[in-house]
Amino acid sequence: MAFKHKHLLEIRSLTPSEINTILSTAESFLEISTREIKKVPTLRGKTIINLFFEPSTRTRGSFELAAKRLSADIVNFNQTASSLAKGESLKDTVLNLEAMKPDALVIRHYCAGAPYFISTFCQSHVINAGDGYHEHPTQALLDALTLKQEKKKIEDLKIVIVGDILHSRVARSNIFLLQKLGARIILVGPPAFLPTEFKNFGVEIDYSLDRAVEGADAIMMLRIQRERQKSNSFPSIREYRNLYSLTKNRYKKAKKNSIIMHPGPINRGVELSTDLADSAKSVILKQVENGIAVRMAVLYLLLGGKERETAD
Amino acid sequence: MKEKIKAKVMDSRKIRRAVHRMTTEIIERNRNLKNLVIVGIRTRGIYLGKKISKLIKELEKVDIPVGVLDITLYRDDFSKIEAQHMVRKTEINFSVAKKDILLVDDVLFTGRTIRAAMDSLIDLGRPKSIQLLVLIDRGHRELPIRADYVGKFLPTSKRELVQVKLKEIDNCDEVLITEPIKLK
What we know:
The complex is a heterodimer.
Chain A: H1 16-30, E1 47-52, H2 58-69, E2 73-78, H3 90-98, E3 104-109, H4 114-119, E4 125-131, H5 137-151, E5 158-162, H6 169-180, E6 184-188, E7 204-206, H7 209-212, E8 218-221, H8 237-244, H9 248-251, E9 259-261, H10 274-277, H11 284-303
Parallel strand pairs in A: 1-2, 1-3, 3-4, 5-6, 5-8, 6-7, 8-9
Chain B: E1 3-10, H1 12-29, E2 36-41, H2 44-60, E3 66-69, E4 100-108, H3 112-124, E5 129-137, E6 149-153, E7 161-165, H4 167-170, E8 174-180
Parallel strand pairs in B: 2-3, 2-4, 4-5, 5-6
Antiparallel strand pairs in B: 1-8, 7-8
């Protein structure tokens, strides 16, 4: 049952039982955030550094609160503006931070593989908080926790993931995770954002949202990254909305109790209509809440105890 | 780890009598039973706590809620232990503030579990009082902690292990003293 990895770099290399260990640990942590004193002393004396090379409010804040609720000390280094601009290499930045003796580094980077690269020379535990178009493991874990809560199980669920799949690390981590736990996954998006190569992951592809949502248990909408609208592959917002926006009429085709998920931030009226985003079927805020518990679980499993298994 | 059984110190009858005796002591001492809540420490403390709650209901017709406490997050040997302890849920669905808490565990040994449990309870609110009930007190305290209600005092050596088994999870009620066998 113990989780024996030193780092959390991706979902792809985890086993289903390791994923379930993280999820059940996270379930135990949920209650702490509802207490009057939202803090346990577990990671007292541990130092965690949030090292973000890309803007993020939710993920960074969520890691920060998770660390604080476990009594760890956490420091934010926002590298978008500082030494990188002065020409310091990634390796030098990390080595300098390591000299400050942290126990874990939480890394968000615009290059896929940056957390892996850092883990090759670094003594601390490395946690990937999103790297390029590669993975965003804690997002997939909090999505899985939300699905488990809402649907009791993940096996055999029909889950539709809609949007700019090509540029989405959230989609990739979710594909790996949900597949390991036995869900049926259908990817939907404009062909330019959904190359047929995704079939190699063993998932289904559909270019029609109307068809794909039929009988779905959960619909996961991805954010349309407005940054990318300038590229030629992006149709107009209006065209995108007509074809791929989740509207009430489209949602009606899904299963009766199907849930709507979104990793945030939402572009209201683009990928998701406002009334659906605020409806009872939307679990978007639940996802945010679960994010803290999942990140507490990851920090606990990586930093708590030594990595050897013995009987109780 | 293999172990050999050295003695069976309690059977189901003895356990039942000890629980019964302790329950009457609890009733005697807590005039305001309505203010009492029970918190069982995972895992066997929960079942002992439930037995006591049921007995109080039979004897005094008062419903005493039973909560579940997981102390993993409050352990003081956290960075020392080799095994990673799985965190499980703490389920206390009532407020502990201003309550008289009866903390229940199966074996009292070093006292560190109880220290962790008390810290954890106080983080949940400010109880009026905390009392401690254990089925077995085996000695060897490392902290200044003692139990208010004890099923049986059991002098042991530090090498020995005391195993409490309860029907709800172990299919039988008994208390054993065992000793790990040295592998040559």
